[in-house]
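Fill in residues.
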């Protein structure tokens, strides 16, 4: 009997993270982006807990394009109809690769037409956790839309005006 063994990469995913308690609140998305090491070829991530109401991804990609950032790998847990706004950025190679568990019709059609330079990787929802925790793909920046957050960046979907539930998996 031929048995296969799955070997996962070594990971520090379970190591506790200790961060300084500094105020991370910025007055705008632009002010936040000014503090980041933005560069061509970067990988950015988004989680879809607002589903078809998630416009953060659209805003961030637009702002990165305005700054001339190109060759972005977009690691989004899901892309819905609301994300049609990123189609021009796929066509102009601001976004050159997408890694996602779900892609809706319009964005999928653009990819199927050959406009995504480096292609797409579709995966199961559960694989996203392994992908990130075991550094199969590394992120440069993760963006999360949340309904409430404290000054050091702890977000929740259980308070605020746009409740979306627990963010434990995001």
């Amino acid at each position: 009997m031929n048995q296969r063994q799955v070997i996962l990469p070594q990971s520090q995913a379970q190591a506790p993270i200790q961060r300084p308690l500094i105020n991370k609140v910025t007055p705008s998305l632009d002010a936040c982006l000014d503090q980041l090491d933005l560069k061509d070829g970067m990988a950015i991530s988004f989680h879809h807990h607002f589903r078809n109401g998630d416009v953060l991804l659209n805003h961030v990609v637009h702002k990165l394009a305005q700054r001339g950032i190109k060759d972005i790998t977009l690691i989004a847990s899901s892309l819905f109809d609301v994300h049609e706004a990123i189609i021009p950025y796929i066509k102009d190679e601001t976004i050159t690769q997408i890694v996602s568990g779900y892609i809706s019709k319009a964005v999928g059609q653009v990819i199927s037409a050959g406009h995504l330079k480096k292609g797409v990787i579709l995966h199961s929802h559960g694989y996203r956790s392994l992908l990130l925790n075991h550094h199969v793909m590394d992120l440069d920046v993760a963006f999360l839309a949340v309904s409430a957050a404290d000054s050091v960046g702890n977000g929740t979907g259980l308070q605020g005006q746009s409740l979306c539930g627990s963010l434990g998996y995001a």
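The chain has one domain: 38-156.
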